[in-house]
C-alpha cells in the first residue's frame, strides 16, 4: 500500500519516468529511485499507463489470492494442532482422574470435575489456541511497520512510542480483570453442572417429596448468577477491541497534528518531512493499528483462557498420594495370610481406625460388624490400597502392601459393594470388565454361578443387552448378581464383600446370598455386614466400635460374651 502512492504519481505524470538504473546503496533514496525505475519500465513495456494499470491490477489480485490461500493453509494445518492439544489435555485429565486416590473425590464435586474436563478444556481451545496464529504473525507485521516508520520519520515514530503504551496499559488492566471474572464464571459453571448431576441422581427423591419447585429455584439461582458473571465477562472482553481502536485513532490524530506542524512550519524553509512522506507515514501507521488491535484482542482472550488453564492445572498438579515404589515387589499369588499390624487411619484429623491387629488366614472368612461410622468400610478399603494407612502396615504373606505393585495387589482381589457399580454397556462387557479375550462360555459360566444366567437369557438380546446408565434397566437384585458374576469371572483368591445384600428384598437376597456362598468357596473373604444372619458361618467375627476392635470370635462365642455383638443380635432378632 505504501508503494502504491509513488506508482500512481508515475502513472498520472506527477513524477517524471526514471529510465536509468540507480547505483546500489543502503538508503531510502535508493529504494525510492529503484522503485521508480522498475515502475517506469513497466509503464513503457505495457504500452503506456493503461497497460501498466492493467498489469498492476492483475498483480494485486494475484497477491490477494495468494494472501488468502496461504491464510487458509495456515488455518488448515493449525486446526490439527489446536484439536491435538485439546485432545492431549483431555487425555491427561482423564488419566489423572483415574490415578487420583478416592480421598481426593470426597473433597471435590463431580460436576465441577466434569466442567474442567469439558468447559475449561474447550475454553483453552477457543481462547488460547485460536490466538496462536495472531501471536506468531502479528509481531512480525508490527516489526516491519515500525522499521518503515522509523525510516520515514524517527520523530513521529518516537511520538507514537510515547502514546501507544498508554493504550497498552489500559488494555492490560482490562485483561487482568477479565481473567478474574473468567475464573469466577468457570467456578459457577462447575456448581451448575454439580447441581444438574445431583438432580439426575436424586430425581426419584425429588419427585417423591414434591421437591420440583425447590430444585427449580436452586437451579434458577445458580443459572442467573452464571448469566450475570458471563454477561460481565463478555462486556469486558468486547471492550478490548473497540477501546484499542479508539486509542489508536487518538494516537493517529496526535501524529497528524505533529506531522502537519512539521510540514506547515513556515519558519523552516526545508521541513524535515515532505507531504508524500507524511501521507506514507500515516498509511503505515494506520496499518500498524490492525495487528496491535488483533494482539490486544488475543491478549484478552488468552487472559480469559488462563483462568481455565489454572483450573485444569489444579487437577493435573494434584498429589497422587497412593504411589507405587520403584522396583516394587511382584505379587503373583496369595499363599498364607493377610495381617494388619497396629493399623491406624485418620481422615481430616479425625481418627477412623486405631490399633487394628488382625490376621486373616488363607481360605478363612472374616466378618466385620458394628455401628455405622465404626470404620468397617475403611478397614476393608485399606487392603486394596484405596487409601493408605497412617500408622502401622498391612502385609500379604509377610510382604507390606506398600512395597507391592498396585496392579498385582488389586489383581488378587474381587470387590462386591452394597451399591452395584455397573456401566452403560452390555451385560457381557460388564461381567468381563477389566479382562481381555474372555469367551462367551466363560461369561455364561460365571453368570450361572451368580444365579444370573436365567434372567439374562430372558432378554431379547441376551448377554448383548445394554443395561443403561448405571444398570437402571435391571432390578437391584439383578444388578447385584451381575456384580457377583464379574467377581466370579475374575476368580480372585481374596474377596471383599461390602454389605452386598443389605439393599435387597428377601427373594433377591436369597438368590444373591446363594451366589455369594458359591463365590466364597475356597476363597479368603472379608465380609462387611449389617444383617448378622448372613455372617453366622464366618470363621471369625470382628466387632468394631469407634474405630477399635471391641470384640472378636465366632458367632456362638460372641453371643456367650453378652457384649456389643449380643446387643446387636438381639436388636435384629426382635426387629
How large is the count of helical segments?
A: 19
DSSP strand count: 10
State the share of residues found in helices, binned by percent: 55-70%
Q: How far from one another are the termini?
A: 94 Å
Task: Tell me the overall shape.
Answer: elongated
Written as H for each helix and E for each strand, in order along the chain, the element string is HHHHHHHHHHEEEHEEHEHHHHEHEEEHH
* Mean pLDDT figure: 80
**Assembly level:** single chain
Profile the largest sheet: 6 strands, mixed
User: Which spans have pLDDT < 50 for at least 5 consecutive residues?
Assistant: none
Please state how the strands of the largest beta sheet are arranged side by side: 6-7-8-3-9-10
Range of strand content: 5-15%
Q: Indicate the structural class.
A: alpha/beta
Gyration radius over CA: 38 Å
Structural key phrases:
single chain; about 575 residues; alpha/beta; six-stranded mixed beta sheet; four-stranded antiparallel beta sheet; 19 helices; elongated
Amino acid at each position: 500500500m505504501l508503494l502504491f502512492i509513488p506508482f500512481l504519481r508515475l502513472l498520472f505524470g506527477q513524477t517524471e519516468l526514471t529510465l536509468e538504473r540507480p547505483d546500489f546503496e543502503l538508503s531510502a533514496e535508493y529504494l525510492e529511485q529503484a522503485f521508480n525505475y522498475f515502475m517506469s519500465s513497466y509503464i513503457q513495456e505495457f504500452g503506456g499507463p493503461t497497460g501498466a494499470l492493467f498489469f498492476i491490477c492483475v498483480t494485486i489480485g494475484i497477491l490477494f489470492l495468494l494472501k488468502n490461500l496461504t491464510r487458509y493453509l495456515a488455518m488448515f494445518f493449525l486446526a490439527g494442532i489446536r484439536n491435538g492439544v485439546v485432545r492431549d489435555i483431555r487425555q491427561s485429565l482423564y488419566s489423572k482422574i483415574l490415578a487420583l486416590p478416592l480421598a481426593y473425590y470426597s473433597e471435590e464435586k463431580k460436576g465441577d470435575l466434569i466442567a474442567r474436563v469439558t468447559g475449561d478444556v474447550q475454553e483453552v481451545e477457543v481462547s488460547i489456541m485460536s490466538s496462536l496464529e495472531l501471536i506468531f504473525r502479528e509481531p512480525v507485521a508490527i516489526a516491519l511497520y515500525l522499521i518503515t516508520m522509523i525510516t520515514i520519520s524517527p520523530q513521529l515514530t518516537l511520538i507514537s512510542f510515547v502514546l501507544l503504551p498508554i493504550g497498552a496499559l489500559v488494555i492490560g488492566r482490562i485483561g487482568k480483570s477479565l481473567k478474574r471474572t473468567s475464573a469466577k464464571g468457570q467456578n459457577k459453571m462447575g456448581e451448575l453442572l454439580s447441581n444438574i448431576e445431583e438432580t439426575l441422581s436424586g430425581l426419584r427423591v425429588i419427585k417423591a417429596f414434591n421437591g420440583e419447585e425447590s430444585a427449580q429455584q436452586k437451579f434458577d439461582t445458580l443459572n442467573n448468577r452464571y448469566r450475570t458473571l458471563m454477561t460481565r465477562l463478555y462486556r469486558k472482553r468486547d471492550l478490548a477491541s473497540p477501546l484499542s481502536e479508539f486509542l489508536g485513532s487518538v494516537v493517529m490524530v496526535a501524529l497528524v497534528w505533529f506531522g502537519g506542524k512539521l510540514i506547515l512550519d513556515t519558519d523552516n524553509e526545508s521541513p524535515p518531512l515532505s507531504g508524500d512522506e507524511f501521507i506514507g507515514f500515516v498509511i503505515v501507521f494506520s496499518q500498524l493499528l490492525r495487528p496491535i488491535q488483533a494482539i490486544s484482542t488475543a491478549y484478552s482472550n488468552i487472559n480469559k483462557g488462563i483462568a481455565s488453564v489454572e483450573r485444569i492445572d489444579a487437577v493435573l498438579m494434584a498429589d497422587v498420594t497412593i504411589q507405587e515404589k520403584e522396583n516394587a515387589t511382584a505379587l503373583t499369588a496369595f499363599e498364607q495370610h493377610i495381617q494388619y499390624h497396629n493399623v491406624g487411619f485418620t481422615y481430616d484429623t479425625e481418627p477412623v481406625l486405631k490399633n487394628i491387629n488382625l490376621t486373616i488366614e488363607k481360605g478363612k472368612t472374616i466378618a466385620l460388624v458394628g455401628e455405622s461410622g465404626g470404620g468397617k468400610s475403611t478397614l476393608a478399603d485399606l487392603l486394596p490400597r484405596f487409601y493408605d494407612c497412617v500408622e502401622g502396615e498391612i502385609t500379604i504373606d509377610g510382604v507390606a502392601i506398600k512395597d507391592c505393585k498396585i496392579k498385582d495387589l488389586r489383581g488378587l482381589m474381587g470387590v462386591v459393594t452394597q451399591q452395584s457399580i455397573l456401566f452403560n454397556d452390555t451385560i457381557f462387557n460388564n461381567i468381563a470388565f477389566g479382562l481381555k479375550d474372555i469367551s462367551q462360555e466363560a461369561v455364561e459360566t460365571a453368570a450361572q454361578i451368580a444365579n444370573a444366567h436365567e434372567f439374562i437369557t430372558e432378554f431379547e438380546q441376551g448377554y448383548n443387552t445394554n443395561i443403561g446408565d448405571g444398570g437402571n434397566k435391571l432390578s437391584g437384585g439383578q444388578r447385584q448378581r451381575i456384580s457377583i458374576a464379574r467377581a466370579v469371572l475374575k476368580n480372585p483368591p481374596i474377596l471383599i464383600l461390602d454389605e452386598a445384600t443389605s439393599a435387597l428384598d428377601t427373594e433377591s437376597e436369597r438368590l444373591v446370598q446363594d451366589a455369594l456362598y458359591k463365590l466364597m468357596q475356597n476363597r479368603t473373604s472379608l465380609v462387611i455386614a449389617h444383617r448378622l444372619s448372613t455372617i453366622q458361618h464366618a470363621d471369625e467375627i470382628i466387632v468394631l466400635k469407634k474405630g477399635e476392635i471391641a470384640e472378636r470370635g465366632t458367632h456362638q462365642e460372641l453371643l456367650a460374651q453378652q457384649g456389643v455383638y449380643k446387643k446387636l443380635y438381639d436388636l435384629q432378632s426382635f426387629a
